[in-house]
TrEMBL record:
This is Cadherin EGF LAG seven-pass G-type receptor 1. It comes from the Eukaryota. One of its GO terms (cellular component) is plasma membrane. Residues 240-255 have a biased composition (Basic and acidic residues). InterPro entries: Cadherin-like_dom, Cadherin-like_sf, Cadherin_CELSR1-3_9th, Cadherin_CS. Residues 269-377, 378-486, 487-592, 593-697, 698-799, 800-902, 903-1008, 1009-1110 form the Cadherin domain. One of its GO terms (biological process) is homophilic cell adhesion via plasma membrane adhesion molecules. Residues 240-270, 1186-1212 are annotated as: Disordered. The gene is Celsr1_2. PROSITE patterns: CADHERIN_1, CADHERIN_2. One of its GO terms (molecular function) is calcium ion binding. Pfam families: Cadherin, Cadherin_CELSR2_9th.
Length: 1212
């Protein structure tokens, strides 16, 4: 069957559609089956089907199209786990029932939902393949033409229904190649033929090709989504009987141009083939068989297949194609994690020719995932520290594991394997994001270290799930939450009063279950240390005696001990009690109340008469104070005796003044202590003669005052009684009113001296009424003595509390009252008026001397000092002054007065642009001098800058991670802003700048400005000269952006050389426009392993380097003579047959000789010849003439000199 000539017309249209978009389908996992997705109907007379060979699988199994109405619906629920490519391509074929017209519609399908990952690719407008391809056939009879103005195709009618609203504007189309000079334009949706006729001929001829750019707006809205439409119009030359039948050799294809040739080119069924292949399959696995058809017979129909990787040269090492059969197999196992998509250009070349004809298609191999990678933790061991007693829900850390597999096989689930062992139930982990939280409040005193085994399981299904484990070590840091505890509730110790100074009495001990400074206990005495006899060593709790004890003064001390830890704030236990019982030692000798003792006695007193009361006192107690009296220095037969218990001296025999008038002897008082102590006094007794006068007091009533602090033995009063008898001796004694035997009376110089025998106590007795008797031995008189005891400063002030503990917020203003303390004094008057002072100067505080109010006099700062201990002294105003001391413990409470402070002014980090989501970039850290919740920090981007959501920060660890895939070519550097926020009320925060540099990887192939480049080069350019520069750009940087250039096709024989580094194109031979007008080469830009190609059309520009060509010629014309006149031809009788190989030259024609009479008229521009009106029959029948033809190019100044030639011709 004869191959019919075909004329090709290719039109490319860029159409804008409504903003909803008609080239993308977005499917949600929640969308129900049966939902209408799109309408691709072209009207009645068409059938609709999915092109499964070109479509990806999945998602072609997600969609179905009604073959009759063209409505596309969802066939089953979308599932990201089953979407190996997202997005993926789907093609629908619309076929006419009445003709061979075909419409191929291309959609990009996106699946959205949980765990979906959509890989967006940047595509330039030039690199996008058409979204709608229209193939239109026109059949013409041989040698017939389509006149200018005819409609080639109604583009709007053939568009799918969803694109019908596109308003198309006119755009001119220019012819490209071939012999046709026709062009086309778009008007009201119709493609009209312009500028010449489009003719078909039975003879072999080159195909015509037109390229057009059409634009439109959807409903007049700018910024709408765009659609690329390709329209191919094929003019088929056919006989009348064949008209209406399209031969097999010219059935529709979707790309390229086709030329009529005896050796027909092969043809692939599809322009693109998509196939999916699981990774890790053995080498030699069959991928796909690509078949091209060629209608020719013999060698012209025998095809050879060649496959070449596009974009990434590594693909060439993984696949091979059978040169004869087109079967594609693997050369080695594939690894999706290394490269998941391989794109090849497949060429089928026949063995006919010359020239040999070829066809190209593209093969896209998608490597589907198998679960061949296990999870990998960022660290094999994690370590962190937390404070005990943190609240439930506190976020400890985030544990991350990554998996190189696809999302379906990298759906990470986290679990604590030993969560129920050894108290690990304190922690829990979020199974999805690996966040470890507090489930129960930890207590360091119960357990201070935890070791968790965390498993990450990828939930893979092919061949099965994989898991990995990491160990998490968590140390619980101490909080000051335990008070010191004394080992005993009450310490009792007995100490002899004569113990040496600086002797250890006892050691108290308190323990604190906390740790470090929180467990360091310091001791102090807060009360009971009367007169400061004791000292406690603060670090050890050893109590020493620092002043002598005196049992006779104080017999027991009750020391209140305070144990305070070193926490902030400190915890205090003030319940320690040490009872020091002073044991008496016999260290006081008896002391007589008076010495010497004197008395008189009548000689006639009866035996047993009490003569004198001798009294001694002993400050000791018990047996040490039990006294026994005896007389000393007495001769035998001594008439006086003493009661050894009471000290009364009585007459033991009759007295006789005439025998002995005066007795002098001694009295000894001895205690029962060990060793025994004693003292002596002298006694003088005068024996009186009997008389008859009564002694009479000079005053009957005496009144006086005695201070209660008068010392024992003080003389109080002397009473005098007068006896008128001669030589009468008056003796005095207190006969009544001597309560508690406070007073004693002795005779002295004829009078009775009242002295203080025991200490007074104002609180017990404030007045004494003594009855004193004066006796001369027989007769007596009495007098009353009123003694008023005046108050002495005998009582010291006593504080209401031995220890005060108060709290003070650090934000209280200066002058605030902290606490009011008070003491009482049982004395009266000035003795009871108390003045308060601080024992040591603490500049932050002062105390009011009268009220005891403690106030602040400067700001306190918890961060500088968490507590203060003030020693407050209360002094009375008696003489001498007495005092008491108490301790005020002021605990400073923290206020949120310190903002967080970052450890650095700014943070720098780097991350590769292909880093997986959740990759750790850097960690920021801040501190806060406040305590508790005021110092507990969290980190956030809220109110700052998170790089438009490209990063997120873990709130408690401060680790900054990637939230999505990064692209350095879009954003090379991020300037982030994060905050550290405390949990105070109101919260305070601090900001920090974070600079993250995205490191480049070689993920972008070099890009030429256009897929086809057109270069104008003047012919005759010097050999070795640079005629042009071919350049591509690479958005990567550094070594990843280094580009190498090479010519890969079309340079046979070698005419040009391309500089490998800068793309300079150098001519290696002479370029002659008249020999060849255009060179087509394919150049490749390589940024290993990524490549891209462009077709370069080198079009030579003609220069005037050829002489016009003109040979001798003859013009013969006929002259018809009538009766009226000669009838010479009036029109053009011929033209000068000159030509110039330089196509751009413009010829000029002139006569050189033979036309001196101007019988011929020569058009200087066209060379057309006409006869002059002056010509008549009288002229010769033959006239030889010479014409000169000169050629000149359309000049770019300065023009070259014209070239000319001249020839002789004969006009008959």
């Amino acid at each position: 069957m004869e191959v019919l000539p075909v004329c090709w017309l290719w039109l490319w249209a860029l159409l804008l559609t409504p903003p909803l978009g008609c080239v993308e389908l977005h499917l949600s996992e929640t969308l129900r089956p049966g939902a209408v997705l799109a309408n691709i109907s072209s009207g009645p007379g068409w059938t609709y089907a999915m092109d499964r060979t070109s479509s990806s699988s999945p998602p072609h199994d997600l969609l179905r199209v009604d073959p009759r109405d063209g409505v596309v619906r969802l066939s089953r629920r979308a599932d990201c786990a089953r979407a190996s490519r997202n997005p993926a391509s789907v093609y629908f074929r619309t076929s006419s029932r009445a003709s061979r017209d075909v419409v191929l519609t291309h959609f990009m399908v996106f699946v959205h939902g949980q765990d979906c990952f959509i890989k967006y690719r940047r595509k330039t407008a030039a690199s996008r393949e058409p979204d709608v391809r229209i193939s239109r056939f026109l059949q013409l009879a041989a040698t017939s033409c389509l006149p200018a103005g005819d409609v080639l195709v109604n583009v709007t009618r053939l568009l799918p229904a969803f694109a019908r609203r596109v308003a198309l504007t006119d755009a001119a189309c220019a012819a490209d190649g071939g012999t046709t000079t026709a062009s086309a334009s778009l008007s009201r949706g119709n493609l009209l033929l312009l500028d010449g006729d489009l003719c078909a001929s039975g003879a072999r001829r080159d195909a015509a090709s037109l390229r057009c750019a059409l634009r439109g707006e959807a409903g007049g809205t700018s910024g709408a989504a765009s659609v690329r439409v390709s329209v191919s119009v094929r003019v088929v030359t056919a006989s009348a009987e064949e008209r209406g039948h399209v031969p097999e050799s010219v059935r529709e294809t979707h790309n390229g141009r086709r030329r009529r040739s005896t050796n027909s080119p092969p043809q692939f069924q599809l322009p693109n083939y998509h196939v999916s292949l699981a990774e890790n399959r053995d080498a030699g696995t069959h991928v796909i068989t690509l078949k091209a058809t060629d209608p020719d017979d013999g060698d012209a129909g025998r095809l050879e297949y060649v496959m070449e990787a596009l974009f990434d040269s590594r693909s060439n090492d993984l696949f091979a194609i059978d040169a004869r059969g087109g079967g594609v197999t693997t050369l080695r196992a594939l690894d999706r994690e290394v490269k998941d998509t391989h794109v090849f250009k497949v060429t089928a070349t026949d063995h006919g020719g010359p020239p040999r004809r070829s066809a190209t298609s593209h093969l896209i191999v998608t490597v589907s995932d198998t679960n061949d990678h296990g999870p990998v933790f960022e660290q094999t061991e994690y370590r962190d520290r937390i404070r005990e007693n943190v609240e439930v829900g506190f976020e400890v850390m985030t544990i991350r594991a990554t998996d190189g597999d696809a999302p379906a096989n990298a759906n990470m689930v986290y679990k604590i394997l030993n969560g129920d062992d050894d108290g690990n139930s304190v922690f829990e982990i979020d199974p999805r994001n690996g966040l470890v939280r507090i489930r129960e409040r930890p207590d360091r005193e119960t357990r201070d270290r935890y070791q968790l085994i965390v498993e990450a399981n990828d939930q893979g299904k092919d061949p099965g799930p994989r898991s990995a484990t990491a160990t998490v070590h968590i140390t619980v840091e101490d909080e000051n939450d335990n008070y010191p505890q004394f080992s005993e509730k009450r310490y009792v110790v007995r100490v002899p009063e004569d113990v040496a100074v600086n002797t250890k009495v006892i050691q108290v001990e308190a323990t604190d279950r906390d740790q470090g400074n929180n467990a360091k206990v310091h001791y102090s005495i807060i009360s009971g240390n009367v007169k400061g006899q004791f000292y406690i060593h603060s670090p050890t709790g050893v109590v020493d005696i620092i002043n002598p004890l005196d049992y006779e003064m104080i017999r027991e001390y009750n020391l209140r001990i305070k144990a305070q830890d070193g926490g902030r704030p400190p915890l205090i236990n003030g319940t320690g009690m040490v009872v020091v019982q002073v044991v008496d030692v016999n260290d006081n000798a008896p002391m007589f109340v008076s010495t010497p003792f004197q008395a008189t006695v009548l000689e006639n007193v009866a035996v047993g008469h009490s003569v004198l009361h001798v009294q001694a006192i002993d400050a000791d107690s018990g047996e040490n104070a039990l006294l026994e009296y005896r007389l000393t220095d007495t001769p035998p037969g001594f008439p006086l005796a003493i009661n050894n218990s009471t000290g009364w001296i009585t007459a033991s025999a009759e007295l006789d003044r005439e025998s002995v008038e005066f007795y002098t002897f001694g009295v000894e008082a001895r205690d029962h202590g060990v060793p025994t102590m004693s003292s002596s006094a002298s006694v003088s007794i005068t024996v009186l003669d009997v008389n008859d006068n009564v002694p009479t007091f000079t005053e009957k009533v005496y009144a006086l005052k005695v201070n209660e602090d008068a010392v024992v033995g003080t003389s109080v009063l002397t009473l005098t009684a007068v006896d008128r008898d001669v030589n009468s001796v008056v003796t005095y004694q207190i006969s009544s009113g001597n309560t508690r035997n406070r007073f004693a009376i002795t005779g002295q110089s004829g009078g009775g001296l009242v002295t203080l025998a025991l200490p007074l106590d104002y609180k017990q007795e404030r007045q004494y009424v003594l009855t004193v008797t004066a006796s001369d031995g027989m007769r007596a008189d009495t007098a009353q003595v009123f003694i008023n005891v005046t108050d002495a400063n005998t009582h010291r002030p006593v504080f209401q509390s031995a220890n005060y503990q108060v709290t003070l917020s650090e934000d209280r203003p200066v002058g605030s009252t902290v606490v009011v303390i008070s003491a009482t004094d049982e004395d009266t008057g000035e003795n009871a008026r108390i003045t308060y002072v601080m024992e040591d100067n603490v500049p932050q505080f002062k105390i009011h001397p009268d009220t005891g109010a403690i106030t602040t006099q400067m700001e306190v700062d918890y961060e500088d000092q968490a507590s203060y201990t003030l020693a407050i002294v209360a002094r009375d105003n008696g003489i001498p002054q007495k005092l008491d001391t108490t301790y005020v413990e002021i605990i400073v409470l923290d206020a949120n007065d310190n903002a967080p402070l970052f450890l650095r002014d700014a943070y720098q980090g780097t991350v590769f642009e292909d880093a997986p989501v959740y990759t750790s970039v850097l960690q920021i850290s801040a501190s806060d001098r406040d305590a508790g919740s005021n110092g507990r920090l969290s980190y956030t981007f809220a109110g700052g800058d998170d790089g438009d959501g490209d990063f997120f920060i873990e709130p408690y660890s401060g680790i900054i991670r990637t939230a999505r895939k990064l692209d350095r070519e879009n954003v090379p550097v991020y300037s982030l802003k994060a905050f550290a926020v405390d949990k105070g009320i109101p919260p305070l925060k601090a900001a920090v700048a974070i600079h993250v540099a995205v490191l480049d990887i070689n993920d972008n192939a070099p890009v030429f400005d256009k897929d086809e480049l057109f270069i104008k080069v003047e012919e005759n350019s010097p050999v070795g000269s640079v005629v042009a520069r071919v350049s591509a750009t690479d958005p990567d940087e550094g070594t990843n952006a280094q580009i190498m250039y090479q010519i890969v096709e079309g340079n046979l024989p070698e005419v040009f050389q391309l500089d490998i580094f800068n793309g300079d194109l150098t001519a290696l031979t002479d370029l002659d426009y008249e020999s060849r007008r255009e060179y087509v080469i394919v150049v490749q830009a390589t940024s290993a392993p990524l490549v891209s190609r462009a077709t370069v059309h080198i079009q030579l520009v003609d220069v005037n380097d050829n002489m016009p060509v003109l040979q001798n010629f003859e013009i013969i014309f006929n002259n018809y003579i009538t009766n009226k006149s000669n009838s010479f031809p009036s029109g053009v009788i011929g033209a000068v047959p000159a030509r110039d190989p330089d196509v751009d030259d413009k010829l000029r024609y002139t006569f050189e000789s033979g036309n001196e009479l101007n019988l011929l008229v020569l058009n200087e521009d066209t060379g057309e010849l006409k006869l002059s009106k002056d010509l008549d029959n009288d002229r010769p029948l033959e006239a030889p003439m010479t014409i000169s033809v000169s050629g000149r190019t359309t000049p770019i100044p300065p023009p070259p000199p014209p070239l000319s030639s001249s020839e002789r011709f004969t006009c008959q």
